[in-house]
Design goal:
59% helix; single chain; 109 residues
C-alpha cells in the first residue's frame, strides 16, 4: 500500500469535473484585469493575446452554467446573476480586443 502523498485529496475547487461557483468567479474576475493590462487600456493597443482572457472568462461562464439547478431558488437566482455578470465581462474583453482594429469607429485614419 503506497504511503505519503499518493492519496492526497485535492479540494473540489481544483477538480474540473466538479461544479464550482468559486472557480468560475475566479476565472472571470481575474480575466478582466489581465485583459486591461494586455490592452494598455487608455491607449487600447491591439493585442491578439486578449483572446486568452476571453477564453478564460468563457470557461468561467460555462462553469457557472453547470451550477444551474432545475427549480428556482435563491441559489438559482444568484447563479443567474453571476452568468449576467460574466456576459458583461466577456463583452468588455471582446470590446478591448476588437476596438483597436475598427479604425472608422475610433476616428483615426
Amino acid at each position: 500500500m503506497p504511503t505519503g502523498d499518493a492519496y492526497q485529496v485535492k479540494p473540489a475547487f481544483l477538480n474540473p469535473r466538479s461544479r464550482s461557483l468559486l472557480r468560475g468567479s475566479v476565472l472571470v474576475l481575474f480575466s478582466l484585469p489581465i485583459s486591461l493590462l494586455l490592452s494598455h487600456f487608455p491607449q487600447n493597443q491591439p493585442s491578439v493575446l486578449l483572446t486568452l482572457p476571453a477564453l478564460l472568462a468563457t470557461i468561467g461562464m460555462v462553469d457557472h452554467i453547470r451550477c444551474m439547478r432545475s427549480q428556482w431558488s435563491w441559489y438559482h437566482g444568484g447563479v443567474l446573476f453571476c452568468i449576467y455578470a460574466d456576459l458583461m465581462v466577456i463583452g468588455m474583453i471582446l470590446f478591448l480586443l476588437l476596438y483597436p482594429y475598427v479604425s472608422w469607429l475610433s476616428g483615426t485614419h
